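Deliverable D2.4 — example input (structure tokens):
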């Protein structure tokens, strides 16, 4: 399920999915809120309405999430089934929320962000198509080592000796997304190279879209230099000089 709280942590992904930056979205929300409230007041107080003011069901999503959903609807050209799937509501709710808010956006008349026509029935992209066209949020990188028997050839055994595992191994690198789905498997190589060197040799950097945040363990210190246009998360690794006795 997509939420503002999670998506705002990844500004590049936010803009890719909505077409606006986080500051632009927040400014737009501040403009939309009073217009939306006025529009709702007019809707609930129309002469032909039979329910009392305040009657009817509440919105399942806050206005901020509904605006986020509407921008993604327009930006990605989704159908309401896909839109509801990503925001945890049914397609009827997604349809009502986005079409009501689209009227607000048009009423606002903000010329700096033109609002395209939304997809008509049967035209929007489905879930499978969206997942194929738009990248994952995370690329989680890790290397695994399989032990093997020590070679009698001196050069071969040195190449396969892993200082990390203190034995002879073959190393394979995996990249998975935030759901644990495997996106890439490197070729198996001798276990002696450092994990970051293995990453360089695998050419995996070219396979990770710039919108995706890359994460790895402490063995990948320096990964940011290999992915200069990505958001990269690796844990801090203290050196021996930085350890202080209590």
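Example output (designed residues):
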């Amino acid at each position: 399920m997509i939420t503002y709280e999670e998506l705002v942590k990844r500004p590049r992904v936010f803009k890719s999915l909505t077409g606006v930056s986080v500051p632009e979205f927040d400014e737009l929300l501040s403009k939309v809120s009073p217009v939306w409230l006025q529009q709702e007041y007019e809707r609930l107080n129309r002469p032909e309405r039979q329910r009392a003011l305040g009657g009817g069901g509440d919105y399942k999503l806050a206005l901020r999430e509904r605006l986020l959903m509407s921008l993604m609807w327009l930006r990605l050209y989704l159908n309401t089934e896909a839109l509801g799937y990503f925001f945890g509501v049914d397609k009827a709710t997604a349809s009502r929320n986005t079409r009501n808010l689209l009227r607000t956006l048009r009423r606002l008349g903000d010329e700096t962000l033109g609002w395209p026509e939304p997809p008509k029935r049967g035209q929007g992209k489905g879930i499978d198509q969206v997942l194929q066209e738009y990248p994952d949020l995370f690329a989680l990188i890790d290397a695994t080592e399989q032990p093997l028997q020590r070679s009698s050839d001196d050069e071969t055994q040195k190449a396969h000796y892993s200082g990390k595992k203190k034995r002879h191994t073959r190393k394979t690198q995996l990249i998975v997304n935030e759901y644990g789905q495997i996106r890439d498997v490197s070729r198996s190589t001798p276990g002696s190279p450092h994990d970051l060197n293995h990453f360089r040799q695998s050419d995996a950097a070219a396979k990770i879209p710039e919108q995706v945040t890359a994460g790895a363990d402490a063995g990948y210190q320096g990964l940011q230099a290999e992915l200069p246009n990505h958001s990269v998360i690796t844990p801090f690794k203290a050196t021996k000089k930085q350890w202080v006795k209590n």
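The longest helix spans residues 22-44.
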